[in-house]
Amino acid sequence: MNGRRAWLVWGVSVLAYLAAVTQRTTFGVAGLEATARFDATASILSVFTVVQLLVYAGLQIPVGVLVDRFGPRLLIAGGAGLMMAGQLQLATADSVAGGILGRSLVGAGDALTFISVLRLLPAWFTGRQIPILTQWTGIVGQLGQIASAIPFAFVLHRFGWSPAFVSAASLSVLALVLTLLLVRNRPPGTAGPQVLPLRQTATSLAQAWRQPGTRLGMWTHFTIQFPGTVFVMMWGFPYLVSAEGVDSSWASALMTLFVVVAVICGPWLGSWVGRHPLRRSTMVLLIAGAMACAWLAVLLYPGPAPLWLLALLVAVLAIGGPGSMIGFDFARTYNPGNRLGTATGIVNIGGFIASLVSMYLIGVVLDVLNAAGFSGGDLYALDSFRIALAVQFVVMGFGVAGILSTRAKVRARMADDGVRLPPLRQALARERLRKQAARRGTEQSSPGNETG
Ligand SMILES: N[C@@H](Cc1c[nH]cn1)C(=O)NCC(=O)O
């Protein structure tokens, strides 16, 4: 099914997602300028980010329903239009209310983009390519952070607030135009999934939710996306610099390591998922276990943790981004085409809710410890952070319980359908044999290649 046209559609839609991630992250880069422009305190500024994330998370299900009804092209274009409007609003806003309106529009446009881009993949690609391309979609999109950190920051510091946000808006204009010109919902001559009548929308939403595979995807996203998001978007920098005493240039290097590890792991995880579709949840639990162990080692380390241990922590947390994409693979494989957008929206809520709850609770615990005198007047004391960050174990425990209970339901349904899951040991032995056979095949074919 895939040819040049499919790659073009994917390329343009991923550019639209990259533009969305750029718009999502520009405000973080402009934090200092925003404080001066809006004459705002740190907590008011954090409201900008929280509102944007709440709008994003709150719109996931409506957007999922809309993408099933109107197709991804219209929604990706609409998302780009909303983000353009949001950034233009921000470019001219000089009151907190005006700024928050701008960020809300950006959050709404952003919400329309990612699940619509994922929705295009099964229409244009087949089989094992889909999990790999799902990963590449996530990876290429994250590069939008670099567009905020380098060209956007350059324009902001050189030319000021309004030119920077207007230039960011122009990226969404490009995404809007290219999407309308080049993206199509499916290859010409192929029939899309049957669109359900409007009155069946609620039924379809209920069916997507009742499907335990969708909820397994949501708990997957919930459990392993949030530790990395919390670290990168909110608490990582203050923790590293103020509590662990890491130099700020090393802290930036650790944040770069985060992106590099996510980029390296994504394609590998995508191809692993394609080869072991029945072991996806085991991989998710392994990643969650590795994250819990890494945090435990850092938080229990007597005194400030050494840089190598912090680098290990960052590397493990980074796997969560690509790892959480396995959640979307559950949604895709356990739902029919006509409710795939809805199911994807449900999955995508998981990680963002867990992130918001954790970010907030960590802040509350830090405040309480400070008010109680535990922190010795230093809000970001190492021992206070040890307790506050441990909140994540509770959130993760919640997620793991969700994964285990929904996985049991998925497996029970599979057993009813006559699908038997071979024991892990047997599956690993079979994989070893397959690899040996593949190696023997290569050895045997090499002389032929040489003579041929
Ligand atoms: N898991 C992330 C995307 C990702 C992929 N690799 C690293 N991060 C996700 O769910 N993203 C949703 C979005 O809207 O960006």
Automatic annotation (TrEMBL):
<protein>
    <recommendedName>
        <fullName>Lysosomal dipeptide transporter MFSD1</fullName>
    </recommendedName>
</protein>
<feature type="transmembrane region" description="Helical">
    <location>
        <begin position="340"/>
        <end position="365"/>
    </location>
</feature>
<feature type="transmembrane region" description="Helical">
    <location>
        <begin position="40"/>
        <end position="59"/>
    </location>
</feature>
<keyword id="KW-0813">Transport</keyword>
<feature type="transmembrane region" description="Helical">
    <location>
        <begin position="71"/>
        <end position="88"/>
    </location>
</feature>
<comment type="similarity">
    <text>Belongs to the major facilitator superfamily.</text>
</comment>
<feature type="transmembrane region" description="Helical">
    <location>
        <begin position="282"/>
        <end position="301"/>
    </location>
</feature>
<feature type="transmembrane region" description="Helical">
    <location>
        <begin position="161"/>
        <end position="183"/>
    </location>
</feature>
<dbReference type="InterPro" id="IPR036259">
    <property type="entry name" value="MFS_trans_sf"/>
</dbReference>
<feature type="transmembrane region" description="Helical">
    <location>
        <begin position="385"/>
        <end position="404"/>
    </location>
</feature>
<feature type="transmembrane region" description="Helical">
    <location>
        <begin position="133"/>
        <end position="155"/>
    </location>
</feature>
<dbReference type="Pfam" id="PF07690">
    <property type="entry name" value="MFS_1"/>
</dbReference>
<keyword id="KW-0812">Transmembrane</keyword>
<keyword id="KW-1133">Transmembrane helix</keyword>
<feature type="transmembrane region" description="Helical">
    <location>
        <begin position="216"/>
        <end position="237"/>
    </location>
</feature>
<feature type="transmembrane region" description="Helical">
    <location>
        <begin position="100"/>
        <end position="121"/>
    </location>
</feature>
<dbReference type="GO" id="GO:0005765">
    <property type="term" value="C:lysosomal membrane"/>
</dbReference>
<dbReference type="GO" id="GO:0022857">
    <property type="term" value="F:transmembrane transporter activity"/>
</dbReference>
<dbReference type="InterPro" id="IPR052187">
    <property type="entry name" value="MFSD1"/>
</dbReference>
<feature type="transmembrane region" description="Helical">
    <location>
        <begin position="307"/>
        <end position="328"/>
    </location>
</feature>
<keyword id="KW-0458">Lysosome</keyword>
<dbReference type="InterPro" id="IPR020846">
    <property type="entry name" value="MFS_dom"/>
</dbReference>
<feature type="transmembrane region" description="Helical">
    <location>
        <begin position="249"/>
        <end position="270"/>
    </location>
</feature>
<feature type="domain" description="Major facilitator superfamily (MFS) profile">
    <location>
        <begin position="8"/>
        <end position="407"/>
    </location>
</feature>
<dbReference type="GO" id="GO:0005886">
    <property type="term" value="C:plasma membrane"/>
</dbReference>
<dbReference type="InterPro" id="IPR011701">
    <property type="entry name" value="MFS"/>
</dbReference>
<comment type="subunit">
    <text>Homodimer. Interacts with lysosomal protein GLMP (via lumenal domain); the interaction starts while both proteins are still in the endoplasmic reticulum and is required for stabilization of MFSD1 in lysosomes but has no direct effect on its targeting to lysosomes or transporter activity.</text>
</comment>
<keyword id="KW-0472">Membrane</keyword>
<comment type="function">
    <text>Lysosomal dipeptide uniporter that selectively exports lysine, arginine or histidine-containing dipeptides with a net positive charge from the lysosome lumen into the cytosol. Could play a role in a specific type of protein O-glycosylation indirectly regulating macrophages migration and tissue invasion. Also essential for liver homeostasis.</text>
</comment>
